[in-house]
From TrEMBL:
PANTHER family: ALCOHOL O-ACETYLTRANSFERASE 1-RELATED (PTHR28037). It comes from Blautia pseudococcoides. InterPro entries: Alcohol_O-acetyltransferase (IPR052058), CAT-like_dom_sf (IPR023213). Signal peptide: none annotated. The lineage of its organism: Bacteria, Bacillati, Bacillota, Clostridia, Lachnospirales. This is Condensation domain-containing protein.
Length: 400
C-alpha cells in the first residue's frame, strides 16, 4: 500500500526543513561494522529506501521505495568543525524527489567516534531520528538487529483524537483560502521552489549555539522543578521567554499516544506544536515556569488546540501548502499562498521562538548526543534539547 504524504507536506516546499542528531558512539570506528549497521537500519525502516514521488494521474505525493537508494555517508576529520560540515551538506537545499531522505557525516576515531544523522523532516520528527541513532549504536556495538517497524503516516483527520476537528471559524478561514487558491488557477513547480530554496539559504545563513549541562546541573534543575511543581520542559520554555523577552514560545509535543495507527519505532512525523502564551512578566523564572505549565497542560488536554495545525494541513488544498513559504517570503505571486504563509504559518513576520525537548535517553552505547533543530523560516530562534545519560545539551538555531 502506498504511503501518501499529507500532514508532512508542509515540510516539502519550505527551506531548512532538515535537522540532525549528533552523537558520540562509545567504540572506535570500524568502516565495515558502520555500514553493516546502516544496512540493518535500512532493512528495518522502509522510508530509508524512499524518496518522494508523484502519481501521474492524481498528482498525489507518496513515499516511493527504491532498493538501489543508499544512505550517503561523508567522512570528515574534525568534529569541532561540525557546523561548517553540517551547513555544507544542506547549502543547496534538499531535492526530496531525487535524494535519500537521510545523510550521515562520520568523524572516525580510535576510542570513540562521532556521527551526525541529518534527516529531511519528511523522513520523521526528532524522536523518530533519535530512535534511529539508538538503534544504530546498539547494532554497531552489540549486534542487536533493529526492529522492523511499518511506517504509517497520518492519512485522515479521523485518526486524530475526538475533538480535533477545526472550529467553524477556522474551517471558514481555510475554506476561503482554498477557494481563493483554486480561483487563482496556478501551482508552484518543484523546480521553481528549488530555485527559491537555494536563494533563501544563501541569503539567510544559520548559526548554532551550544550549551551543555553536566549530570550534576541537570539533577539540580530537575530537583528545583519538582519543588516548584513544573517539568523541565516548562522550565526550558520559561527560560527562553525570559532570555528573549517574549511572552510567546511554540513548544513541540509528541502525539504518538494519541494516534490510532502509529506503530512503535516507525519513522514519520508524529509531532505537533502548540503556542504557549503567558502574560507573566515576573523576573522570577519559577513564576514564569508555573504559568507556562498551566497553559501547556490546558493546551495538551484540548485536542482542538493540540492538533490544530495538523487539522489545518488536512483541510488545506495540498498545492496551497506548497505555495505558503514561496509566496510569503519569496517572489511567487499568490494571494492565497501569501495569506496561509503569513497569517497561519508566520513566514512573513519571522519573529517566532520555539523549543523542542526530546527528553532523556539512557544508553551505554552512546557517550553523548545533541539535537540540532530545524531552522524554521518562521522563527528567530529554534532550540533543540536532548539528554543522554542525564548529560543535557541545548542547540539553538538562529538566523544571522
Amino acid at each position: 500500500m502506498k504511503q501518501y504524504i499529507l500532514t508532512e507536506r508542509a515540510h516539502l516546499m519550505c527551506p531548512n526543513m532538515h535537522f540532525g542528531i549528533k552523537a558520540k558512539i562509545a567504540a572506535g570506528y570500524d568502516e565495515g561494522k558502520f555500514h553493516d549497521a546502516l544496512r540493518a537500519l535500512a532493512s528495518a525502516h522502509p522510508f530509508l529506501k524512499s524518496n518522494v514521488a508523484r502519481e501521474a494521474k492524481s498528482g498525489k505525493l507518496y513515499y516511493c521505495q527504491h532498493q538501489e537508494i543508499k544512505i550517503p555517508v561523508f567522512e570528515k576529520d574534525n568534529a569541532s568543525r561540525w557546523q561548517d560540515d553540517y551547513s555544507d551538506m544542506t547549502r543547496y537545499g534538499w531535492d526530496a524527489f531525487k535524494k535519500c531522505l537521510l545523510k550521515l557525516i562520520v568523524y572516525p576515531d580510535r576510542e570513540s567516534f562521532e556521527v551526525i544523522f541529518i534527516a529531511h523532516h519528511l523522513l520523521g520528527d526528532g524522536r523518530s531520528i533519535l530512535n534511529l541513532v539508538c538503534e544504530f549504536a546498539n547494532c554497531y556495538l552489540s549486534g542487536k538487529t533493529p526492529t522492523l517497524a511499518e511506517e504509517s503516516p497520518i492519512l485522515s483527520i479521523d485518526e486524530l483524537p475526538k475533538g480535533s476537528q477545526l472550529s467553524s471559524v477556522n474551517k471558514l478561514i481555510i475554506g476561503y483560502a482554498n477557494r481563493k487558491w483554486k480561483h487563482e488557477g496556478h501551482t508552484v513547480s518543484y523546480e521553481d521552489y528549488r530555485k527559491f530554496e537555494t536563494e533563501f539559504i544563501a541569503d539567510n545563513p544559520v548559526s548554532y549555539l551550544e550549551e551543555v549541562w553536566e549530570p550534576r546541573k541537570t539533577e539540580e534543575v530537575l530537583r528545583k522543578c519538582h519543588e516548584h511543581g513544573v517539568s523541565l520542559n516548562d522550565y526550558l520554555v520559561a527560560e527562553m521567554m525570559r532570555k528573549e523577552k517574549t511572552n510567546r514560545v511554540v513548544a513541540a509535543v509528541d502525539i504518538r499516544r494519541h494516534l490510532s495507527r502509529y506503530k512503535v519505532g516507525a519513522l514519520g512525523n508524529y509531532a505537533s506544536a502548540t503556542a504557549i502564551e503567558v502574560s507573566n512578566k515576573s523576573e522570577d523564572i519559577w513564576n514564569i515556569a508555573r504559568s507556562v505549565s498551566e497553559r501547556l497542560k490546558k493546551n495538551i488536554s484540548n485536542p482542538g488546540k493540540l492538533m490544530m495545525i495538523l487539522a489545518c494541513y488536512l483541510y488545506m488544498e495540498p498545492e496551497l501548502i506548497d505555495a505558503a513559504a514561496i509566496s510569503a517570503i519569496g517572489r511567487f505571486n499568490s494571494s492565497a499562498g501569501k495569506f496561509i504563509g503569513s497569517a497561519i504559518l508566520g513566514y512573513k513576520k519571522r519573529n517566532g521562538y520555539s523549543v523542542t525537548n526530546l527528553g532523556n535517553v539512557d544508553n551505554p552505547n552512546i557517550v553523548e548526543a545533541m539535537f540540532i533543530p530545524p531552522a524554521s523560516p518562521a522563527n528567530v530562534k529554534t532550540m533543540g534539547v536532548l539528554s543522554v545519560n542525564h548529560r543535557l545539551k541545548k542547540c539553538t538555531a538562529h538566523y544571522q
